[in-house]
Amino acid sequence: MRLLLTAFFLETGAVLVLAPWSEFWDRNYFAQGLPLIHALMINNFVRGAVSGLGIVNMLAAVAEMHSFFTERRIEHVISLNNRAAEE
Length: 87
Hints:
Layout: H1 2-18, H2 23-26, H3 29-33, H4 35-41, H5 44-86
Helix pairs in contact: 1-5
C-alpha cells in the first residue's frame, strides 16, 4: 500500500511540475471561456507555484520511499538480532 502511495505522489508531482509549462495548460477550454482565469493561468508566478506543489509531492514520495526502506532494514536487523540471541 505504501508503494502505491509513493507511486501516486511521484506521478502527481510529475504532472504538476510539467503541465503548467505545456501547450495543454495554455489551451485549457475552461480558462479560454473566462478571460480573467486565463490571464491568471498564464501568469508565470502561478505556473511556478503549481510546479512548486509538484516538487513538494515528489519530495513527499522520496520521504515515503526512504521511510519504507529504512523500516524494512530495521525489521531485518531486529530479526537477525533475535535469531542470534536464540542461538
